[in-house]
Design goal:
Layout: H1 7-25, E1 35-38, H2 46-51, H3 53-70, H4 88-93, E2 97-98, E3 108-109, H5 117-120, H6 135-149, H7 163-171, H8 173-182, H9 184-209, E4 232-234, H10 243-261, E5 265-267, E6 287-291, H11 292-295, H12 299-306, E7 311-315, H13 322-333, E8 339-345, H14 351-368
Parallel strand pairs: 1-8, 4-5, 5-6, 6-7, 7-8
Antiparallel strand pairs: 2-3
């Protein structure tokens, strides 16, 4: 079924894209972006959506078009997320998915497949994203979602979780944390193989989507990143260790993505004990995407470490008044760091009115900001 796309929608899409291009470039804005979206009530359980790509597409497209139809004042760029689980890279290496008894729980893995890292790592083959695990289904969904989006509704790529997170799936979390100290060379060899697979999966995903113009980022976020900034890395497990571990085992592998696809973003729900190291590498992100429930307490520290280097996307917790929450973010972070609030609401929560009430705050936030970057991504120093 063809999408109904008005001339206004096409013009507005370009306005919103230009807004984010300017934001990533550090240019002064007249208003700070406000990302409010409509989320349609679910018709299926989470597990049904993960197991059935057609149902997942139907749900994603309904929310994207509802955002276009009912939220003319938002700065959100409605997008769709084809998702086969955050352990999809681990599944390609041979981990089997576990579907828990809770129908609204995402899949995990049944158990690790590496029991002796130093003995097994060199014989572990790098999988083929077109053949192994859940990746072929993920690529099929990317292609299907992109075709349904008709070049107007962009799609994310797959939730890759990040190299150290995949290593935790393959080895077990405790074994990984021990290996940082007892088998670092072997762990680096494993991380190299994981990153080889991730980069191959990104390239295959871009091809399936019909090119970078049709994607949000090279990872799971359904927030649109501008041309030259499509690179994205995930590192939720960095909440469990410190900046020295991050510098050695996370940053160099994230940099491989940023070097090839642009220094776009880094995800960690939070907390953020490694925040001081997020921007230290030659190839570091321009933005962070964090979850409010786990990162709010870090905001004063992030104000110092992010200042002059980037900005933050922060996902609302679904509980506090979103307008007052947004005002508190401005009061905490201005004039040093811009926070783009991401608020997802069902239609009965009147998202248009919430967006209208947030707009004056976005104007004030922009006036109070000190714009510009002190360091460009991909630049030394």
């Amino acid at each position: 079924m063809a999408l109904v796309i008005s001339d206004w929608m096409r013009d507005e899409l370009q306005r919103r894209k230009d807004l984010y291009r300017r934001l990533f470039a550090g240019e002064p804005l007249e208003r700070a972006p406000v990302d409010v979206r409509v989320t349609m009530p679910p018709q299926h359980t989470t597990q049904e959506l993960f197991r059935d790509g057609e149902k997942q597409l139907q749900a994603a497209l309904a929310s994207a078009m509802a955002t276009w139809e009912t939220l003319p004042d938002t700065d959100a760029i409605p997008a769709m997320r084809p998702d086969v689980g955050c352990s999809c890279l681990a599944s390609a290496f041979g981990c089997e998915y576990y579907w828990g008894p809770n129908p609204d729980q995402t899949p995990g893995i049944k158990g690790p497949i590496i029991t002796d890292l130093e003995q097994q790592v060199d014989s572990l083959p790098v999988p083929d994203p077109h053949r192994d695990g859940w990746l072929p289904e993920g690529l099929r969904r990317i292609r299907m979602f992109a075709e349904a989006g008709e070049g107007f509704v962009p799609v994310s790529l797959l939730d890759a979780a990040g190299g150290v997170n995949v290593a935790a799936d393959l080895m077990g979390v405790t074994e990984l944390l021990v290996a940082f100290h007892t088998a670092p060379e072997a762990l680096h060899r494993l991380l190299d193989k994981i990153q080889d697979l991730y980069l191959a999966t990104i390239r295959a995903g871009i091809e399936a989507a019909g090119g970078q113009d049709n994607i949000t980022t090279v990872d799971f976020p359904d927030t649109w990143f501008p041309e030259g900034f499509k690179g994205h890395a995930s590192d939720d497990i960095s909440a469990s260790f410190g900046p020295e571990i991050y510098r050695e085992f996370s940053a160099p592998y994230h940099a491989r993505v940023f070097r090839e696809f642009g220094c776009g973003g880094l995800h960690n729900c939070g907390p953020n004990p490694c925040h001081e190291a997020y921007f230290e590498h030659e190839f570091s992100p321009r933005s962070l995407d964090l979850a409010s429930p786990y990162s709010d307490e870090d905001l004063p520290r992030l104000r110092e470490s992010v200042k002059g280097r980037g900005f933050i996307y922060l996902y609302w917790d679904g509980e506090r008044d979103p307008v007052e929450w947004y005002r508190s973010l401005m009061e905490t972070m201005a004039p040093d760091v811009l926070v783009v609030p991401i608020v997802m609401l069902p239609p009965d929560r009147d998202p248009a009115e919430i967006c209208r009430q947030m707009r004056p705050i976005s104007l004030e936030y922009a006036r109070r900001m000190e714009w510009g970057w002190s360091r460009l991504p991909g630049a030394r120093g």
